[in-house]
Amino acid sequence: MPSIPLLDLQGQYRPLREELLAAITRVCDAQRFIGGPEVDAFEHEMAALTGVPQAVGLSSGTDALLVALMALGIGPGDEVIVPTFSFFATAGCVSRVGAIPKLVDIDPRTYNIDPALAAAAITSRTRAIIPVHLYGQCADMDPILATANAAGIAVIEDAAQAIGATYHGRQAGSMGTAGCFSFFPSKNLGGFGDGGLLTTSDERLAHDVRLLCNHGAEPKYFHQRIGGNFRLDALQAAVLRVKLPHLEGWTKARRRNADRYDGLFAQSTVADRVGVPFRGPDKTHTFNQYAIRIPNRDAVRAALDASGIGTEIYYPVPFHLQACFAPLGYRRGDFPVAEQVAAETLALPIYPELTESQQERVVSAIAAALG
Questions:
Q1: Please, what's the b/e burial string for 236-272 (b: 16 or more CB within 10 A of its CB; e: otherwise)?
Q2: Which of 42, 23, 318, 350 has the alpha carbon at shortest distance from 187?
Q3: What percent of the chain has pLDDT over 70?
């Protein structure tokens, strides 16, 4: 039978091909590859989408996190609270500025940072909390924001997987001191390479981010701070502008596919053995990933692979068990929820173009593997 990939970018590309090529040609004809009208327009469109006054296009989601920390003056000796379960950049960027990632465990239902544990981890050296809106569902932001406000520290939302997600009617990336987005090709809004964005309601912070993106120069060749080259390419901005009007429809399709998976698993013979994603109240989940929890995860994944069904593990090793973070002194067993989730989660195909028959085949294959 035909394979079912984890992600089918061709299905998204084909109907937009001519419009995308025209946008790329427009940039090539203008010969404005760095900054310029495409980047400016995309930043304004993203500010409107997220409901913030400032949006800064960046070279990647990783660089968005990095430059947010740099702009806030976070560095050696400072602590930043992060969940131990996320994509590596969440903690890696903290270490890159010389600060200390203060790891905490996650909520067993949403896999996002546990707000109570984050509050308990604050010390006199804490400068920020980075809640991750994992898989497309916002973290529990109200208690996190209250904790940060009481402690006088920043909140940097890692919204790399959550563009368009909402929490009590507020957009991901609009609630904290800054929001960080990724446009990696596999994201719900993906470019033709790396790209990122930082959102904020703080005009001074936005100014500092723009400064740092251009090696800290203001004016050109006069360097006020030591920054880097973190700019979004005009070609990527043009591609993303073509795709942006389709984001809402793609998100609805992902949610439809998630609903269908939920129903298929509920009706299957393995309903009591498959944990479908939890959806918190007053939240809009965008399902960048549809990650189930299953026993014998690795064996099930091998069976699906043999059947031509693509899957992925997000993420197999929590930060506290990564070799590069061994100097932090954490041990296996320190964060039991994250360790269990890392051993049991499996992401299934969820892209908008996925068909009902393909989903039925995925669920049948899982039932056979478990049965």
A1: bbbbbbebeeebeebbebbbebbebbeebbeebebee
A2: 350
A3: 100
Q: What is the pLDDT of residues 236-270, one digit of tens each?
A: 999 999 999 999 999 999 999 999 999 999 999 99
Q: How far apart are CA 45 and CA 164, in angstroms?
A: 13
CB atoms within 10 A of CB 189: 23
CB 158 within 8 A of CB 176: no
* Model pTM score: 0.97
Distance CA 280, CA 2 (A): 35
Distance, CA of 118 to chain centre = 19
Q: Hey, what domains does the chain have and what are their CATH numbers?
A: 9-244 (3.40.640.10), 246-370 (3.90.1150.10)
Nearest to 197 by CA among 49, 98, 307: 49
Contact present, 311 and 187 (Cβ < 8 Å): no
Question: Distance of alpha carbon 305 from its chain centroid, rounded?
Answer: 25
| C-alpha pair distances (Å), 8 with each of 162, 172, 183 | 19, 25, 16
Neighbours of 51 (CB within 10 A): 15
Burial class (CB in 10 A: 0-12, 13-18, 19+), 185: middle
Distances (CA, A) of 309 to 2, 185, 349: 9, 20, 8
DSSP state of 308: T
Q: Quick: pLDDT tens for 20-48.
A: 999 999 999 999 999 999 999 999 999 99
Placement of tokens 């400064």 in the chain: 211
